[in-house]
Recover the amino acids of this structure.
């Protein structure tokens, strides 16, 4: 039999959602026994493409060919049967069961007589131990999963994929929660898998990793296929310019104003949770954009949620306009003109089953209440319509359910919600996560416009270009501690990384 | 083309419940044309009245993504409380033999307050002790029945059904505005007023918006600065007061009360809500939907009895409708691209 040049071919895939062309003629061709990086900005269509591969979406056009055979994949079980497996960015193990049960879930080895079949724990243990030995994973098959670190859980997932005889393993941002040494271990496993003919589709934003581990790179932008290159031909700059498709200088709006006096001072605040932030002190000036950089686990979200009254602090002061304030709940924060846009838009931001109107009005109901306890509906709907227009939310009307909007438009609605409360201080946690490139630029424009109007902004961002391009100053955190505050002119990607890893191994 | 088919499908899904109601009425009317009469309509509306009030209480809890199992027992408690204080003076087995004549509003208020207190307790257990609503209200369900039974068993009543209610009280439950076939029963008017107030609260007040927000996404509600605990306590309390009020009307309508009044009404109310499009996962539900949901069940009860169907068969049909209605309704929210 003739060897196929490609193990997997996703050929001219297109997928349209109402109002959005998510994938437009995208191809991905993976050779056997290689690591194939898939790159593109958030919203470029990487995850949509992968969802087509796993039958979560059905592509409108195009074919999926594995080993020369055209496949019809209806769900992730089909994909698994064809030897296609995925390690998700966010892992969902069964925490209260042990390692081996997590691996063999749904296909436990059985023993017994006739109809009396029982789970064969000894065989399960032996099989798991053998699997781990083969992959050189050092882990007790009987350990409870909830006691393990993220990297260990990830290696369980990889072992599980291997146990399914996977020919292709998709890894979505596998290193986002790993430390340096853990990344090295992961790479060792990946190289080992490659040697045994398994192909890896590796999704990541980290250039250095991509250049280090991958053989080929496919780049996507705005749902389109840009090209596939041999990794040896690429550099970080080349990848960025292909991903972005325009000069870096144009990625952020121009800005011309200078921050004013200190409006918020945070003094030595320490979380109630001993593993969270400790002894953090900083100032925020009027009209300033203060970026907070750091790695996952740096406790940045916890810090700003504490300022907003969502989490408790043991010691420390929050001073607004030279007066110390006590913020014990989001309602208190609102009274002090603070607004928060959380990172997890779906979990803590939108009300998916409610219309845009309710979604914009909800934080501002006190203001809409008339003396008769009824709400001023007229004003509510005028405000919603105005917000839609001003922030350019793409929607037929304010009666549309927010769940039908794209991520970028949902984010604009959330911005509208908080702008209606007329805040002076805005806390933005990863404000452009999961938003496509065009909408990102619009959000940046809005943020800078707000700063220009004299609103003060704290913005957490894990995207280096974003934090460098948007912030007046950047404070960097590592393991719950503030490690440095950099001025815009002096900040570089290397400096931020150095501070972000100060206490890490 | 494709687009319009989708539209039509959506339309059918959106209004499926109303269709079910019409089809039911049509089937019963074809079987027995006497069904379509003003008297039938009157009976159905009267029977629906207390159920609507209970279902509105159950509905607001469901919209917050909770559930309230205590509803039926609170109805029983309020029925007994109000009836015990509204017996005629010369009745031989008076609950309180020497109780002076009271203005009606006082016992009514006591009964409604009883419901409200149980509701407050439910809300407090759910909001402050973080006990899941199913368990919290299961607990109060059992307790309220116990409390009601102790009260009902007091000397000299000793668990005798409470009868001999004053005619000015029973008139509320069985009397009508006007006379003849086109008269409007007071109880229907009361239910409509309650439903209207509920509609205003659902749609025009802060509490209503907060209720939808808490059910739609409780975490987002917290971040938006809503005092989730306080709102939940208020909503459970209102629900309790509604059950209490329904219990009073139930006593007035039937002219008596026992500690078993209202038994299992919570299940009928929840069923009516879900058939009426209230989502059990929270955030979705309307007053008109709940009204139609209640009507469907009354039409089934009344109509199938009217055509002489075996009551056990009626149960089977009721069960099928609950499952079918939700299976259809949930199609609105399941989407596979």
């Amino acid at each position: 039999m003739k060897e196929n040049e490609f193990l997997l071919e996703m050929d001219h895939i297109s997928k349209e959602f109402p109002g959005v062309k998510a994938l437009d003629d995208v191809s991905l061709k993976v050779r056997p026994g290689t690591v194939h990086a898939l790159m593109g900005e958030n919203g470029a269509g990487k995850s949509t493409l992968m969802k087509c591969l796993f039958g979560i979406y059905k592509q409108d056009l195009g074919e999926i060919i594995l080993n020369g055979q055209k496949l019809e994949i209806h769900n992730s079980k089909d994909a698994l049967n064809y030897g296609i497996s995925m390690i998700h960015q966010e892992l969902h193990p069964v925490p209260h069961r042990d390692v081996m049960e997590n691996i063999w879930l749904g296909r436990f080895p059985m023993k017994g007589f006739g109809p009396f079949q029982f789970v064969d724990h000894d065989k399960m243990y032996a099989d798991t131990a053998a699997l781990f030995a083969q992959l050189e994973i050092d882990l007790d098959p009987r350990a409870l999963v909830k006691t393990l670190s993220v990297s260990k859980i990830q290696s369980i997932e990889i072992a599980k994929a291997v146990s399914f005889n996977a020919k292709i393993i998709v890894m979505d941002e596998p290193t986002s929660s790993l430390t340096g040494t853990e990344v090295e271990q992961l790479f060792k496993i990946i190289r080992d898998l490659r040697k045994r003919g398994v192909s890896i589709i590796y999704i990541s934003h980290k250039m250095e990793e991509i250049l280090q581990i991958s053989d080929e790179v496919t780049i996507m932008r705005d749902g389109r296929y840009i090209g596939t290159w041999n990794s040896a031909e690429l550099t970080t700059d080349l990848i960025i310019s292909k991903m972005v498709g325009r000069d870096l200088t144009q990625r952020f709006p121009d800005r011309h104003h200078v921050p004013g006096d200190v409006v918020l001072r945070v003094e030595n605040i320490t979380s109630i949770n001993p593993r969270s932030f400790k002894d953090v002190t900083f100032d925020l000036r009027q009209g300033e954009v203060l970026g907070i950089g750091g790695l996952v686990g740096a406790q940045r979200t916890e810090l700003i949620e504490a300022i907003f009254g969502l989490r408790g602090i043991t010691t420390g002061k929050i001073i607004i306009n030279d007066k110390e304030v006590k913020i014990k709940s989001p309602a208190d924060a609102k009274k002090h003109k603070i607004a928060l846009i959380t990172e997890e838009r779906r979990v803590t931001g939108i009300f998916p089953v409610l219309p845009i109107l309710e979604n914009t009005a909800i934080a501002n109901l006190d203001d809409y209440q008339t003396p008769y306890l009824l709400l001023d509906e007229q004003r509510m709907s005028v405000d919603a319509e105005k917000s839609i227009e001003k922030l350019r939310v793409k929607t037929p009307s304010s009666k549309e359910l927010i769940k039908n909007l794209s991520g970028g438009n949902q984010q604009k609605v959330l911005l509208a919600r908080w702008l209606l409360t007329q805040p002076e201080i805005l806390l933005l946690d990863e404000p452009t996560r999961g938003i496509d490139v065009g909408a990102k630029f619009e959000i940046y424009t809005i943020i800078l416009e707000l700063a220009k109007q004299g609103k003060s902004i704290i913005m957490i961002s894990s995207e280096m270009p974003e934090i460098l391009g948007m912030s007046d100053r950047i404070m960097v955190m590592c393991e719950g501690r503030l490690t440095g505050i950099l001025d815009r002119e002096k900040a570089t990607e290397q400096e931020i990384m150095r501070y972000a890893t100060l206490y890490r191994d | 083309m494709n687009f319009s088919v989708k539209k039509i499908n959506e339309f059918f899904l959106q209004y499926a419940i109303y269709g079910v109601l019409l089809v039911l009425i049509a089937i019963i009317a074809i079987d027995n044309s006497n069904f379509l009469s003003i008297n039938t309509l009157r009976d159905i509306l009267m029977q629906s009245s207390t159920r609507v009030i209970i279902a509105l209480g159950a509905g607001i809890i469901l919209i917050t993504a909770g559930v309230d199992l205590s509803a039926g027992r609170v109805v029983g408690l309020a029925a007994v409380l109000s009836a015990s204080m509204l017996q005629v003076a010369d009745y031989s087995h008076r609950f309180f033999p020497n109780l002076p004549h009271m203005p009606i509003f006082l016992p009514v208020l006591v009964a409604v307050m009883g419901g409200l207190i149980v509701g407050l307790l439910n809300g407090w257990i759910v909001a402050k002790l973080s006990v899941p609503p199913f368990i919290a209200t299961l607990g109060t369900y059992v307790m309220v029945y116990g409390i009601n039974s102790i009260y009902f068993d007091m000397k000299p009543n000793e668990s005798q059904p409470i009868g001999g209610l004053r005619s000015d009280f029973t008139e509320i439950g069985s009397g009508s505005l006007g006379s003849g076939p086109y008269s409007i029963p007071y109880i229907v008017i009361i239910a409509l007023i309650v439903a209207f107030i509920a509609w205003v609260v659902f749609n025009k007040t802060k509490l209503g918006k907060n209720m939808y927000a808490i059910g739609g996404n409780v975490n987002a509600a917290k971040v938006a600065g809503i005092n989730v605990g306080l709102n939940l306590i208020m909503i459970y309390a209102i629900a309790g007061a509604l059950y209490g009020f329904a219990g009073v009307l139930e006593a007035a309508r039937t002219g008596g009360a026992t500690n078993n009044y209202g038994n299992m009404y919570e299940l009928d109310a929840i069923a009516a809500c879900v058939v009426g499009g209230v989502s059990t996962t929270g955030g979705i539900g309307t007053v008109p939907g709940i009204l139609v949901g209640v009507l469907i069940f009354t039409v089934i009860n009344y109509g199938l009895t009217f055509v002489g169907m075996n009551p056990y068969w009626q149960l089977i049909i009721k069960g099928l409708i609950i499952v079918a209605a939700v299976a259809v309704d949930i199609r609105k929210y399941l989407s596979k691209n």
